[in-house]
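Worked problem 6 (solution included).
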Amino acid sequence: MARRQITGFSNPTVKYLRSLREKKHRKAAGKVLAEGLRLLTDARESGKVPEVLVMAEGRDPHPLLAELEAAVDAAGGEIIETSDDILAKITGKSNPQAVAGVFAEWDSSLAALDRSDAQIWLVAQALRDPGNLGTMLRTGDAVGAGGLILIDDCADLFSVEAVRASMGAVFTQQVAMARWEEFLPWLRAGEGQLVAASLRDAVPYRGAPYTAPCFILVGNESQGLPEDYEMACDLRVTMPMRGRADSLNAAVAGAVLAYEVLASLEG
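Solution. The predicted structure is:
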């Protein structure tokens, strides 16, 4: 299979690939940049093959890398070899892994979701930390959720940080983005229970009457959910806080609640 060699930092392709670390350039190009053999293998196994595969020269051979190269070649993608230093410039990491890939962004509309695909869905409202988004994706993958729906102005799901924090779940989970005024009518047009951790007319999260498909709503890290969003939920639950802290990290709260919902629905 043909490979293109890039040896100069000023190469236009290097500048283009590096630009994909920034949201405005990524959105304009409609691309996603991901790094690491495990991430790219998860993507390939989920049916997503990079359009561009960038590999470090002198890397150790690996059967998964060979399969990835073959998949990119079969799909008509481009394979590039370059130095560790140039790969570091592209990924923004001083010690990059030996491979990175560029993917076309996939459909992230609510219309692309099939709520019957899973018993659990995660919903994040105005979440600002890309690490929390990645963690929620990993949680969704772990509990067998259908995916993650981002409401209002969240951090960039396809940022390098969020993709990395997801540990590949950004490729295995369905994702959608919408405003609240779009999401709520979509949810009410079919089956679905909307659940949030709350102190307003809430019941204990253990043993609460969860039903599938259950949409678990998590709010902003510092402000939580707006009151009208909470009041629109079908079920509000509370989790005990035994220490001095008055709340859990948003992604952690989502994970605790997701596992309780899973246990309830499977029990």
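Discussion: The two ends are 51 Å apart (CA to CA).
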